[in-house]
Each structure stands twice: as structure tokens, then as C-alpha cells.
Amino acid sequence: MKIATILEVLEKIAPLQLQESYDNAGLITGNRDWDCTGITISLDATEEVVLEAAAKGHNLVVAHHPIVFSGLKKITGNGYVEKTIITAIKKDIAIYAIHTNLDNVMDGVNGKIADLLKLNNRKPLQPKRDLLKKLVTFVPVAQADQVATALFEAGAGTIGQYSECGFQVEGLGSFKAGEGANPYVGQRGSRHYEKESRVEVIYPVLQESRVLEALLANHPYEEVAYDLYNLSNSHPGIGSGLVGELEESMPVRSFLEQLKQVFQVPVIRHSPLLKDSIRRVAICGGAGSFLINSALRNKADIYITGDMKYHEFFEANGRLVIADIGHFESEQYTVDLLYDILAKKFPTFAVFKTGVKTNPVNYYS
């Protein structure tokens, strides 16, 4: 099996186009055309993880964090990044990072955290914009439903929990077929008027090729008239962080104790406990200080993340509890998420979770 086959599965779940502009998700070393001998999954692609993969006979490391964020000017073995890259190249190990693109999908990093906390009524904490477009086309009235159905089946027309959303209005279209045309209706050389339906649907930008293929394959006209509009609407299923609700409210200290147990943390850094109970929970795996205001706007009782700085705790402003459980700790179960995805898709293939502890932060107690 080629490495490309494995990456296609991951990129279907978390397309690379969804990564943030500063990110470097994707294949960092190696080649998609290599035959894959096994997969090692880790949160971080350190030299120790690469050596572990090589010892197991694996030539693909799938990591959440990219080992390279920006361009390397020298590769001399100075620092852990350069050492890792040199070792990967020497050992013919492919390193693949699935980072903010996995953060930004509902069933990704934050979805895994929400599963562990048993949150309901989930939605992105900060939905992404510029990921939706609108298609408008003009179809003979008798074929309008056929075309609309094809567009829906190709992924268009979903708004939140509603599918097959569209709009149709009837009007009169006109055209004159040229001498080389083969018109569906009308005669060459004469203007023809046809009762048509204007069909409108929205669709995710990532589904554009499928939607247009469906349109062209099912529209009866030889030349299909259609318009594409960019939308600034937020995508209801893609974005940073996640907010959801517990089945029932919990005393704040009981919830923090549960948080410690679930994420196996010795200590939780938090803002003042000005709330008696917790029901609405906002989360962001990794470093999430940029979403504090989003958590406030979503009326969260608590915001769980990592890497909070001293002054950022003040931004809770007495309106919610900020709980810092640590960067690694908040994302540690991403390894389980990726393992479950790949082991289910390739049940007879060698897929392993790393045994290397990559958390660089230790606690003295």
C-alpha cells in the first residue's frame, strides 16, 4: 500500500486547505509514492519517535504537530528539529503532520476532547468564514428537481442540521443556438424562450469540483449557464475550538476534579472560581488564548485549553472560569483519535501508537 493511500484517508477527514496560514501540515519528509511498511502515531515527531518507527520497521510517522513550522536555512543537526529531519532522511522515514486542519473539523482534536467530557449540542467556538459559496443555475422547469437532487447528493444544500436546502423561482429564459449547436429545446438560428427555474444552493468550497461535476452531468442543456458567488457566511461545521453542554450542571470543583482525572494532570491552573456550577463548556486543544473572547461570546461557564499566560487569566473578567490543563495534556488523546481512524480503515495493517513520551513539560510535586 502506498503512503498516498493512507494520506488520502486523513485528508478526507481533515483537508489540508483547512489549516491556518501559519501552519505547515502535510507531508514534511518522504514521498507519497513510497510503499508504506507501517505507521507510528505520535503527538510530536521527535528524533526518538522517528528512531522508534525505524526500529519497528515503519516508514511513516503521523504526528499532530509539524516538526518544521518555517523554512530551515541550515540542517546541521543543531537543535531537535534539525536532528529529527536528518534522522528521518537517513532512515527513509516519511513524516506527516495533521495539525490545525484537524483542529478545525468538528470530529477532530476538540471533538475528541468533547467526547471525553460527554458534551452535547456541539458547535465551533469560532466558525470559519469564506468556506461557503452559492451556485445559481437555470434549468427547464421539468428538470429542476432532478438537477437539485443531484446537487444535494454531491454535497450542496446543507445548513447546520438541515440538508437539501435550496431555492427555486420560475422565470423566462432566452437563447439562440448557433449553426454548430445541438440544442435540447428550440431551433438553430432562432431565438427560443423557455420556462426555467432559477435553482440556488450553497455548498462548501472544498466540495466545488463534485458539485460542478454533478451539475454538468445532470443538466439537460448542452451549454450550462451558472453563476458562482463567494459568501462571507460562517461555516457551521468548521472552526476553531468547540463549545457544548454537559448533560446536567456540575459543581465547579467537582468538574475540575473530573477534568484532572480524565486528562491525568497533577494540577490545573485556573482563574478565580466565581461560578458555583458548570454546564456550558468551551474547549480548545493546545494553545487557545486567542479564543477567550469567543468563549465569552458563547456564554461558556468554563474554557479549557493550554499555554495560558499570566495576564490572559485576567480576560476571564469574572464571567467564566479559564482552566489551563497544559498543551500536551489537552491534545494527548489526538493519538487515540488518529489510531482509531487508521486502524478502522486499515484493520490488517501495522498501525501503532508511540511509546515515547514527547511531553517536554514535567511537574515536580
Automatic annotation (TrEMBL):
<dbReference type="InterPro" id="IPR017221">
    <property type="entry name" value="DUF34/NIF3_bac"/>
</dbReference>
<dbReference type="InterPro" id="IPR002678">
    <property type="entry name" value="DUF34/NIF3"/>
</dbReference>
<dbReference type="InterPro" id="IPR015867">
    <property type="entry name" value="N-reg_PII/ATP_PRibTrfase_C"/>
</dbReference>
<protein>
    <recommendedName>
        <fullName>GTP cyclohydrolase 1 type 2 homolog</fullName>
    </recommendedName>
</protein>
<dbReference type="InterPro" id="IPR036069">
    <property type="entry name" value="DUF34/NIF3_sf"/>
</dbReference>
<keyword id="KW-0479">Metal-binding</keyword>
<dbReference type="Pfam" id="PF01784">
    <property type="entry name" value="DUF34_NIF3"/>
</dbReference>
<comment type="similarity">
    <text>Belongs to the GTP cyclohydrolase I type 2/NIF3 family.</text>
</comment>
